[in-house]
Specification:
Two copies of one chain form a homodimer. The longest helix of chain A is centred in the first third of the chain and has 28 residues. In chain A, the strands form three sheets. Chain A has a seven-stranded antiparallel sheet with strand order 1-2-3-4-5-6-9. Chain A has a two-stranded antiparallel sheet with strand order 7-8. Chain A has one domain: Coproporphyrinogen III oxidase, aerobic (oxygen-dependent coproporphyrinogen oxidase, 3-Layer(aba) Sandwich), CATH 3.40.1500.10. Helices cover about 40% and strands about 25% of the residues of chain A. Chain A starts with a helix and ends in a 17-residue tail after the last helix. Chain A has about 325 residues and is of the alpha+beta class. Chains A and B meet through β2, α6, α8 and β12 of A and β2, α6, α8 and β12 of B. β12 of chain A pairs antiparallel with β12 of chain B.
Chain lengths: ~325, ~325
């Protein structure tokens, strides 16, 4: 049994390292000035820290990417966090291992959206070392400042295509989940234009207990790893063409100032709501790696309101759940 | 009974409005360029928002104060939040009223510390409108970037004096509570050099259930309102002389850059840990008023480390609980 335990975690670890390489290479292709700085780390888990290893790769002060991180973490913990046990009470007493890759890119040019993706494999282990349960989670989403509908459609279409190759139910379910997850309740707006988000994806289905969707036929571990691979590749194909199209668009102080203000919303989401951030900080994760997601420069202004009819006011229409493939996505709010 | 209900809330409301006036006047005395902009609001409580009124007073782009807010909120809610019921389970089924003033000042010059204070009166009411319980909470604290020990001692000595006029146990208890409360666990450092913090202060004592301190003799409502008044005045006397002494100190890009980086810690504390922020956002408080505490401009940098022995590295010594009145406060960590 112990052999099979190591193999699936090892496979997932190899996959996240492969995705990290691929994504870093793609980012550097569009970045003429800066290069990733690699900060490999290992931790024995002393003082409540998480035990494991990882590679934090940070790019900073580029001409296209002002700040970005592409991180892997291959780690274990002796106890599942309370938030997770609430979903899976039968796993009480289990330890866990995880292998994940996490990406955030903050471009310099306000016409280029910020983006994020995260793909992870999670395994709960019984005290005797056997696997009690495994599942995957992840997603990719886009946060534009000056959105263009064709960019948004391209991003979603690329992710949809990757999803459809595996299960026709994935995209509609994961798109809606993304809209629900990346929502700032106190602002009554989504973080951006969404993408896909999923969790508790295993052989038999996906979703949290109250919204669980079961597969008609079980999908195996290999099929799910293949989905993780395709979704990771799709992230590159979904995002990079937008960078290419927008990176040389002209902007000035006004657009820059609005970008910094909107980055404030990104910080609010990540620090108030994001479960990954909270899980990481609570479980003794590496603070600098977790908070590399925060933008390089951010502005807050009391009760800032864009001028009605301005390009800045236009963004607000994009910050509600929408069916991007509808003829007029802004006619009605998506379910 | 209903008469006495209104009176104590009204008294507290009048006091917080008086403190707001006094603090705004003191701030404007040291600010040659900017003036407070007054945004009075009322809310019927529709759509889950809190019902009440308040005055949000914001100062921005001053030559001394880059951003600051002095806000009052006099509001009611139909249900106590779960976090509060966990402390006071006997108040299940009660509604509440609150009157509070909240201050955050972010100076322009990195040699001038950021500061915050908050004083509030809280009342739980039974369904028949009678008072089930009332208490007060509050505190004041200092967050320097380039700390000076004499400033820190002045700040604490001024608050201590105000506390000692009311109860000799206040300062030691509230100072220690402040150190515990304003602590960033994920950074293993305090937010700043502390000050005082207290909650559940009523006629019979103060503190949360597990750390409750009982008075030998009950203090009445008037005595507690008088303490709130004195603590509010002490905030001005504790902070303003530091502004006066440091506001013309020379600084350049280096100090400015470090200030923006450290402001990131302020954001991390307020959005991840601060109970006031979470309570406000969860109970349908006014988002813009609650988040006026966030700094105007903030920077995050991956794994930034000050050069050992530099003034920036010096700050780290101040970010642990210290007895500021000891001959050498840095010799040992305070209990």
């Amino acid at each position: 049994m112990t052999t099979s335990v190591s193999r699936s975690w090892d496979q997932a670890a190899a996959l996240v390292m492969h995705l990290q390489e691929t994504i870093c290479t793609a980012v550097e292709q569009f970045e003429p000035v800066a290069r990733f700085v690699v900060d490999d780390w290992t931790s024995e888990g002393a003082g409540g820290a998480i035990a494991g290893r990882g590679s934090t790769r940070v790019i900073a002060d580029g001409s296209v990417f002002e700040k970005g991180g592409v991180n892997t973490s291959i780690a274990s913990g002796s106890r599942l966090p309370p938030s997770l046990l609430a979903q899976r009470p039968e796993l009480e007493g289990c330890s866990f291992v995880v292998a994940g890759v996490s990406v955030v890119l903050h471009p310099q040019n306000p016409h280029v959206p910020t983006t994020h993706c995260n793909y992870r494999y999670f395994e709960a282990r019984r005290p005797d070392g056997t696997v009690a349960s495994w599942w995957m989670g992840g997603g990719a989403d886009l946060t534009p400042y000056y959105p263009r509908l064709d960019d948004v459609r391209h991003f979603h279409a690329t992710l949809r295509e990757a999803c459809d190759r595996h299960d026709a139910s994935f995209y509609p379910a994961f798109k809606a989940w993304c809209d629900r997850y990346f929502y700032l309740k106190h602002r009554r707006e989504t973080r951006g234009v969404g993408g896909i988000f999923y969790d508790y994806l295993d052989e038999n289905g996906y979703g949290e207990s109250e919204n669980r969707v079961a597969f008609a036929q079980p999908h195996g571990l290999d099929a799910m790893l293949s989905f993780m691979h395709d979704a990771g590749r799709a992230f590159i194909d979904a995002y990079m063409p937008i960078v290419e199209r927008r990176k040389d668009d002209a902007y000035g102080e006004r657009e820059r100032s609005f970008q910094l203000l909107r980055r404030g919303r990104y910080v609010e989401f990540n620090l108030i709501y994001d479960r990954g951030t909270h899980f990481g900080l609570q479980s003794g994760g590496r603070t600098e790696s977790i908070l590399m997601s925060l933008p390089p420069l951010v502005r807050w202004e009391y009760a800032a309101r864009p001028v009605p009819g301005s390009p800045e006011a236009e963004l607000q229409h994009y910050l509600q759940p929408r069916n991007w493939f509808a003829t007029d996505p802004f006619a009605v709010v998506a379910e």
